[in-house]
Design a protein that fits this description.
The structure is a single chain. This protein is of the alpha/beta class. The protein has one domain (28-220): Vaccinia Virus protein VP39 (Rossmann fold), CATH 3.40.50. Helix content is 31%, strand content 30%. The chain contains 6 helices and 11 strands. It has helices spanning 30-49, 66-78, 94-97, 106-117, 167-176, 190-199, and strands at residues 3-7, 13-17, 22-23, 54-60, 81-87, 123-127, 130-135, 148-153, 177-185, 201-207, 214-220. The strands form 2 sheets. The protein has an 8-stranded mixed beta sheet, with helices on both faces. A 3-stranded antiparallel beta sheet has the order 1-2-3, with no helix packed on it. β2 (13-17) and β3 (22-23) form a beta hairpin. α1 crosses α2. The relative contact order is 0.16.
């Protein structure tokens, strides 16, 4: 895929996929969007309602590695064990990820590189509090006996990759969550929210990130 680095309004990098005519994050701020949608309204929200010795997170779309990077930093700062599984059928190239500017120190740079350069299809201890399992499997083909507490749904927009946002995939996400588990995403499309409700999620429409009007969180309550 033809991909180039862009700088978003908060100074953090994102990527632009020329084939899809789509950016990987909000142009108003990649880091700010990830912090709001996935850390604040995902991980921190779940922890405010629950507790676990090890939180299990499934990410749909590793992309730049920003969500994994921020989650690993959270795990270290809070001394909270996290097992992070990320699906990415189209990994970005080395010459792209090694130039991303998410880090503020050499140690953080090493963390980002380790996220991208760790072996695929294996679970690895990247940090004492953070395990990473990357797979190139698409969501529709992903099979596991494990249940997750949180799903970061960070695929390209429904208008760009409608198959990823299919009713079947949302049913799968529901089945992959523990009771009380959550799915969090930047998307607030009406049909998407109706589909979430149809498969059983309690749908919450929240304030969006970086000036965006809305985002969505789905909660599994059997």
């Amino acid at each position: 895929m033809p991909i180039k680095i862009i700088t978003t309004e908060d100074g953090s990098h994102s990527l632009f996929n020329e084939e899809l005519n789509e950016t990987y994050h909000s142009t108003r701020g990649a880091r700010g969007e990830s912090m709001h949608v996935f850390i604040k309204e995902g991980l921190e929200f779940w922890l405010s309602q629950n507790q676990a010795e090890e939180i299990k997170i499934l990410e749909v779309g590793l992309g730049t590695g920003l969500n994994a990077f921020l989650t690993a930093q959270f795990a270290e700062e809070k001394n909270q064990k996290i097992q992070f599984t990320s699906l990415e059928p189209f990994p970005i190239r080395k010459e792209i990820y090694e130039d991303l500017n998410f880090h503020q120190s050499d140690e953080e740079k090493d963390l980002l590189l380790n996220i991208h350069e760790s072996d695929w299809e294996k679970e690895l201890d990247l940090m004492p509090t953070f395990k990473l399992h990357k797979t190139t499997t698409k969501l529709e083909h992903f099979n596991t006996s494990q249940l997750f507490h949180i799903i970061y749904f960070d695929a390209f927009a429904p208008s760009k990759q409608p198959e990823v946002w299919s009713l079947g995939n949302l049913k799968k996400c529901y089945s992959l969550l523990e009771e009380g588990g959550i799915l969090t995403t930047y998307c607030a499309q009406g049909q998407f929210k109706r589909n979430l409700a149809e498969v059983g999620f309690k749908v919450e429409t929240l304030q969006g990130a970086m000036g965006k009007k809305e985002m969505v969180r789905g909660i599994k309550n059997d």
